[in-house]
Every structure is written in C-alpha cells, then in structure tokens.
Amino acid sequence: MQTNSRRQLVAGNWKMNGDKALVEQMQKQLAGASLKNMDVVICPPFPYLGLFDSRVKLGSQNISEFDSGAHTGEISIAMLHEFNCEYVIVGHSERRADNNESDELVAKKVEQVLKANLTPILCVGEPENVREDGTFFDYIAAQLDAVLSKVGINQFSKIVLAYEPIWAIGTGKTASPAQAQEVHAFIRGCLVKQDDNIAANIVILYGGSVKGNNAQELFSQADVDGGLIGGASLNPEDFLSICQAANQ
Ligand code: PEP
Fold this sequence. Notes:
binds phosphoenolpyruvate, single chain, TIM Barrel, 8-stranded parallel β-barrel, alpha/beta
C-alpha cells in the first residue's frame, strides 16, 4: 500500500450566479477563517476573477481548447494566467450537456490546461439512468480513459478529479458516503493499474448537493479528498462550514 500526501480541497463553483457583493462577502468570510489543513478555491464567473485579492485561490469554470484567435465568446488559458487562476474546471456535466462537450473535447481541454501549468479539475459522473441500470463503473471508466489516452498517466500527477453523479447535482439527492466512497475507490483503482504512486496521491473530490450538514461524513471517507460545491458555495457561511469540515 502506497503512502500519500493528499490534502483536502474544497472548490466552489458559482456557475452563472453571484455578483460583486458576493465577491466581497466571500473574501471577508474566507479572510477571517483559519483553514490551515486544506485548500480552498473559488470558481466565479469570468468577469469576477479580477475582483478577488491574492489571498483567494481562483479557478475558472471553463477554458477554450484553442490558444487564441477568432473564437468569439471564448477565454484562453493565457488570459486565465493573467488573472492568477490556478485551477480550471473541465468536463462539468452542465457543459457536457449544454455545450455538447464530448469526452474527446474534454480531453483536449485538459491537455490545454496542463500545457499552461494550471491544474485541471476533471469532472466525471453518471446520469441517473446509468446509475439505475448499474453500468456506472463502465461509464466513468470511459470518461477517464478518454483523458488518459490523450495525456497519459504521468500527467495525472497534476490533475484533480471530481466525481459528480449527475443525479446528485443541484437536486438535494446527495450520494450516500458509501456510494461516494465506492466510486472514488473505483476511480483510484483504475489508476493503480497504471501507476500506484499517482493513484495514491491524486485528489478526488466529491460533488453533488454537498452541504454543511453532510460534508463531514462525505469527506471522512477514505478516498474522498474534499468537494466541488455548487449551490452551497453561493452562501459564504454555508461554504465556510463545508471548508471547516475539510479542515479537520
Ligand atoms: C456542481 O455543479 O458541481 C455541484 C456539485 O452542484 P451542487 O453542489 O449544487 O449539487
């Protein structure tokens, strides 16, 4: 059994929510907190990235697969660099569904983020019908394989994974700690076959209706290394209590 140096991480995905006032409130809340044992990342909509001060680690919710040029409405990795973004969410289920992002496109975007030395937060997770028909392990393995075959196992030492069952996102139907642990262990197991050290050290977040009252039990599972938080990241107090659960 490999030892590991994993640190818990909580990333708040504001999606297309929030405003300048929330930037202020969130900064204040986080500045007053003592969170020495974990990392916090805020992923606000693009216009707000420049409003945070340097004490807050930032992530973006998306990235173009292109470097620059005639791609109206897109944001490049170089632009994110200028705004001190360290993380980029890639393959969120809402982008896979709303913007037809295929596994191949997601893999290209991961490659783009890695090329710029930023950290991709690669989201995988099954829809409800796949959970119900019992083929979710195959579904998740295929999402992982698309990226593995594009960037190779060694690059996974620079990637954060997020298991986000689609049926749990924004629904209030959180996966049970046992369901989350089962899939996280499966994901780690897929990587062990290729590199046991990378598998032991990769951070795997759980996302899907994490709240202050369920975070601690989820984060205490052996293979759950924190969370990707949607709705609850819009309330600074709720978000802080989730961070505190990861800080223990
Ligand atoms: C998400 O969209 O990544 C998410 C986990 O949302 P929520 O926490 O609202 O379920």
